[in-house]
Amino acid sequence: MAEILSQQEIDALLSAFNNGELQASDVTEKHKKVKVYDFKRAMRYSKEQLRSITRIHENFTRLMTSYLSAQLRTFVKIDIDLVDQVNYHEFIASIPARTILNVFEVEPTDGKMVMEINPQVAYAILERLLGGQGDPSTRNGTLTEIETVLMQKIFSRAFDMYSDVWKNIANIKVKWEDIESNPQFIQIASPNDTVIIIALRTTIGETTGRMTLCLPHLIVEPMLPKLSTHQWLSAMSKTNVPQQDILKQNLDTINIPVIAEIGKATLPVSDLFNLQIGDVIGIETGKLEIRVGHLTRFLGNPGLQKGHYAVQIDQVINTEGDGI
Predict the structure, then answer these.
(1) How far is CA 186 from CA 18, 58, 214, 317, in A?
(2) Overall pTM > 0.85
(3) Which of 158, 88, 150, 97 has the alpha carbon at shortest distance from 125?
(4) pLDDT exceeds cutoff 50 at 276
(5) Phi, psi (degrees; rounded to nearest 5) at 270
(6) How do residues 37-89 score in pLDDT, each as one tens digit?
(7) Averaged confidence pLDDT in the chain
(8) Crossing angle, helix 119-129 and helix 47-72, to 10 degrees?
(9) What is the tens place of the pLDDT at every residue in 201-233?
């Protein structure tokens, strides 16, 4: 509660004002600092949410680095340069007039996201895919039909992994939709809508440039309650599976050819050419050799099981150093 002045104190103040000893500004309450807020550039995301989005895309950059390194057979390095929220008009204004824009549908939302690829980076990728050394300096133009198909394949497969980095937060599916070179033809949000941009500093061989991912609010909005650090780490701990178990699960689903060889025979080429229907070839019989891939791993005996030919394993052949 404000202090109540006595009549004597009021008279003293009035006398000081009249004599010029005191200014009104000396006794009035100072104005509180006002923070400017631009309603045209609404800040929808907290710093904590942006940090979670940064962590998610750090995982994506690692996956994408491994994928592009294998596809291009050259040195590839991708790092996050910037994660920020801007309006869509600022994003469009920040990219070159002629660039490479990959548009993706994001299900189950009705939104779309865009990956802008600096032409130098795009041409370096195409040069490697087409057997060159990855030098983009010789390129200066739009993509041909063949190059468009190559870009579609390389990035549609790359973004098959994008769903994996979000799986602890939400189940989404990303599908490549279109490729465009003029940003004015891409309209995934209204000009004043807030979008998240993730700028990726990309090095391919000797070429360095940027790839920028644009996520509109329509896609991110359903995930916002789960983007707090506590929720994100909690989801990670629940789904954290030891790497050894993951490798075992992946190995368990691999199909390996297993062949049981009844016997062998050796024929001259002349006899082989003269074989007719009904001819009999004598073979060397004994234990059946059971090959896994191209290597003999077991010996067995032939038989039947439920009306089907079968082989009973009688002996395991261990080769030193195989670990089998």
Answers:
(1) 68, 26, 12, 63
(2) no
(3) 150
(4) yes
(5) -65, -40
(6) 555 556 678 888 888 889 889 999 999 999 998 888 888 999 999 999 988 88
(7) 81
(8) 30
(9) 999 988 899 999 999 988 888 888 877 755 555
Judge whether 227 and 52 are in contact, CB under 8 Å.
yes
Residues counted in the chain: 324
Q: Which of 224, 32, 231, 4 is nearest to 109 (CA)?
A: 224
**Average pLDDT of 120-127?**
89
| Dist. CA 291–CA 298, nearest whole Å | 7
Distance CA 124, CA 190 (A): 32
Nearest to 202 by CA among 74, 61, 95: 61
Distance CA 90, CA 38 (A): 14
CA distance 152 to 148: 6
Tokens of 322: 């195989």
Token pair of 5, please? 């002045």
Q: Are 224 and 245 in contact (CB under 8 A)?
A: no
Report the C-alpha gap between 59 and 259 in whole angstroms. 41
**pLDDT at residue 1 in the model:** 45
Q: How far apart are CA 180 and CA 98, in angstroms?
A: 9
Q: What is the mean pLDDT of residues 165-179?
A: 87
d(CA 271, CA 268): 5
Give the pLDDT confidence score for residue 237 in this predicted structure: 54
Beta strands in the chain (DSSP E): 76-87, 100-107, 112-117, 173-180, 194-204, 207-216, 258-261, 288-292, 295-305, 308-316
